[in-house]
Design a protein that fits this description.
By secondary structure, the protein is an alpha/beta fold. 31% of the residues lie in helices and 18% in strands. The protein contains 21 helices and 28 strands. The protein starts with a helix and ends in an 11-residue tail after the last strand. Bound molecules: beta-D-glucopyranose. Beta-D-glucopyranose (BGC) binds next to loops.
Length: 750
């Protein structure tokens, strides 16, 4: 015990000394720096390696040598980052190393499923592992910093960037955010295979009006605090080192100019001491937003809001010096930002060895390694959601189905499986569904192929061949969906059905009478009423990354029993959007069992979604018992809720057991259900497992009209089940009110 205490004390003192050491080094460097050099550190440009927005600056190498740059992004490979680093270290007066950033969103060269897909796994360890591997590959190519995770909650599938997050639920987003930050940053930033993570986009970028990217956000403070802020807080708790601003305004104030977000909430309330970077040219955009009269004004607003680094816009570079001279900002305000940037460079060990990340030997060894591909396949199959499986069409049985028709514009695609934000993932390294099927059926079944149609055009000339191929086969595997290019940034859609004539191809194939397994590839929830009607089985495979093909084949042939669940509601049609499970009851709730007029419903579509949040089938079946509470009264102590789940089918399988809570009566209205716990369990066929959730009263607090936070005495319903719609229930009573200790500053109150 004594030894342990001594070790802990030594570790604590060690890290305190280390921090003090860095502080001293930063201060002494700061004293040597000119104002121009400081502003250079606050400037980030894209290199010519990749482009993720409009480029404003031509010759970045010239800018580096002139000391105008503290960070570059979109530069990769060990040799190229080394070359650029050498310019900064050897050709600038102070030789301050560059920080290399990149959007390593779901893998660097070995790609994992798009984040929304990966979130369907409900497997936090898997998500952490994927982020870890991404960091290992990216760091070997000289990258120090990823602009991930995106932790924007989103309830609107029209928005193209839903593919980049963990879906509509806040509690789940919190956990995924932590897992991803831990994966990227590891446990020690000074190691050469860990990289800085970046929580983005602060704040509420996922809630643009009408799902149109970059559009205005206008919402209540309660929703902002309850739904949109917590995942960001979770990243701070997980030790995230950087934050990114969002492009949007919230309730009239553009985020990049909002001190309440970056100073009051992020730094004062949450204690964040890392660095804040803008989104791409977001300072410049304060002018069209209409809060700044010109770029100089915009630069002052951003600095005063607590922004440290200007991505791509060169506003700091071109205007801050004059703003200091005019007295609009002080040099000390600039020092604050520069200190944070230099501290990060120290934490990464760049001052000791600026080239430690750009390691050609490591790059050759780790990038696209066998282990990484194996992990990508494992995580890809965990991310697949079985949406429908009539008559147990799946898994296919190679003894019986000896002729398989692989049809559809996505069957042979190696590009689209990579998804949006593919970093340096390349189609040549990816495995298509066709390759996956080929590998699995080799020597056992005949694989026929027809493309059928394109993804977007309305040309049906390929239908005849597809029908012929289907007629010759025992079963059709039809891969349809979205190309990778219509989800991601600036890829909003007003129609979220499958584009082109792909659904008509399904209709035509249905006529053959052959069983049809639809393999969906897409970057957002789609409106799938027709497909749901026509297909015998549907697998939602998202864009699964490098190992998509083999992973899907593993599921199709039963080598792996799918257990994924939807992290976002699938609407029946786009008119229902935004639709999410944790909605309110309203004063006139609609009851389909007793339909009558003047209720909160549509005339032309049910209120219910096509597939609810948390939904996903398995090749086996699970039966839920009743909920047992440790007590039906809660005072100061937590209570538990348990349930027995039995695998009643013919396969071993995994189930995501989900617990939701409803505060029945509150001072303010509460959602009908809120996810407060889940557990992914493996249950052998015939076996029963007991799952126990702990309910703490802290999990019940919420924000009221006056922005006080707490929870009131009264009844709470506990729901446990296989998805947000299919649950068992029980009730407990909280015996006294409970006020949370902290009151948040309403945004804009100062
Ligand atoms: C995106 C960010 C991204 C940045 C750099 C922006 O357009 O909104 O998420 O990190 O570009 O590529």
């Amino acid at each position: 015990m004594k030894k342990l205490l001594l070790t802990v004390t030594a570790l604590f003192l060690g890290s305190a000394l280390y921090a003090q050491n860095i502080e001293e080094k930063v201060e002494s460097l700061l004293k040597e720096m000119t104002l121009e050099e400081k502003i250079g550190q606050m400037t980030q440009f894209t290199s010519s390696g990749d482009v993720t927005g409009p480029t404003l600056r031509g010759n970045v190498e010239k800018e580096v040598k002139a000391g105008n740059v503290g960070s570059l992004f979109n530069a990769f490979t060990a040799s190229y980052t080394r070359k650029l680093q050498k310019m900064a270290v050897e050709e600038t007066r102070l030789g301050i190393p560059l920080l290399f950033g990149y959007d390593v969103i779901h893998g660097h060269r070995t790609l994992f499923p798009i984040p929304l897909g990966e979130a369907s796994s409900f497997d936090l360890e898997a998500m952490e592992e994927a982020a870890r591997i991404a960091a290992v590959e990216a760091s070997a190519e000289g990258i120090h910093w990823t602009f991930a995770p995106m932790v924007d909650v989103s309830r609107d599938p029209r928005w193209g960037r839903v593919m980049e997050g963990a879906g509509e639920d806040t509690y789940y987003n919190n956990l995924v955010a932590k897992a991803r930050v831990k994966g990227f940053q590891g446990d020690d930033l000074s190691k050469e295979n860990t990289i800085l993570a970046c929580a983005k986009h602060f704040l509420a970028y996922g809630a643009p009006i009408a799902g149109r990217d970059y559009n205005t956000v206008d919402m209540s403070l309660q929703t902002l605090h309850e739904v949109y802020l917590p995942p960001f807080k979770a990243t701070v708790d997980a030790g995230v080192e950087t934050f990114m601003t969002s492009f949007n305004e919230i309730n009239g104030v553009p985020s990049t100019a909002n001190p309440y977000l970056f100073k009051d909430i992020l730094r004062d309330q949450w204690g964040f001491d890392g660095m804040v970077v803008t989104d791409y040219t977001a300072i410049n955009e304060l002018v069209p937003h209409g809060t700044a009269k010109d770029l100089a004004h915009a630069g002052v607003q951003a600095l005063k809001a607590g922004i440290d680094m200007d991505m791509e816009g060169a506003v700091f570079l071109e205007t801050l010096k004059e703003s200091v001279e005019k007295g609009d900002v002080t040099e000390e305000e600039i020092n604050v930002a520069v200190r944070r940037i230099l501290t990060l460079k120290h934490k990464l060990g760049l001052f000791e060895d600026p080239y430690r990340y750009s390691d050609e030997e490591r790059e050759a060894r780790v990038v696209l390694s066998k282990e990484h591909k194996q992990a990508a396949r494992k995580i890809a199959r965990k991310s697949i959601v079985l949406l429908k499986n009539d008559n147990q069409v799946l898994p296919l049985d190679l003894e019986k189905q000896t002729k398989i028709a692989a049809i559809g514009p996505l069957v042979k695609s190696k590009k689209d499986v990579l998804g949006a934000w593919k970093a340096k993932g390349s189609p040549k390294d990816a495995k298509s569904l066709f390759e996956g099927l080929k590998g699995a059926t080799k020597g056992k079944a005949e694989l026929l192929y027809a493309k059928g149609c394109d993804m977007k055009s309305d040309d049906k000339s390929g239908f005849a061949e597809a029908i012929e191929v289907a007629n010759q086969s025992d079963v059709v595997v039809l891969a349809i969906g979205e190309p990778r290019t219509i989800s991601g940034e600036a890829k909003s859609r007003s129609d979220i059905t499958i584009p082109g004539v792909q659904t008509e191809l399904l209709e035509a194939l249905k006529e053959t009478g052959k069983p049809i397994v639809v393999v969906l590839m897409n970057g957002r929830p789609l409106a799938l009423e027709k497909e749901d009607e026509l297909a015998d089985a549907i697998l939602e495979t998202w864009h699964l990354g490098t190992m998509a093909g083999p992973a899907i084949a593993d599921v199709i042939f039963g080598k792996y029993n799918p257990g994924g669940k939807l992290p976002m509601t699938f609407p029946r049609n786009v008119g229902q959007v935004p639709i999410y499970y944790n909605a309110k009851n309203t004063g006139r709730p609609f009851d389909p069992a007793q339909p009558s007029g003047y209720k909160s419903n549509y005339l032309d579509v049910p209120n219910s979604p096509l597939y609810p949040f948390g939904y996903g089938l398995s090749y086996t079946t699970f039966e839920y018992g009743e909920i047992t509470l440790s007590s039906d009264k809660m005072t100061d102590e937590a209570i538990t809720a348990s349930i027995e789940v039995t695998n009643t089918g013919n396969y071993d399988g995994e189930e995501v057991v989900q617990m939701y809570i409803q505060d029945v009566i509150g001072k303010s209205t509460r959602p009908l259900k809120e996810l407060k716990g889940f557990e992914k369990v493996f249950i052998k066929k015939g076996e029963t497992k007991k799952i126990t959730f702990t309910i703490e009263k802290e999990a019940l607090t919420y924000f009221r009209w006056d922005m006080s936070e707490g929870v009131e005495a009264g009844d709470f319903n506990v729901y446990i089940g296989t998805n947000s719609d299919d649950v068992k229930s029980a009730t407990f009573n909280l015996t006294k009110d409970y006020e949370a200790s902290k009151n948040y500053n309403p945004i804009g109150s100062k």
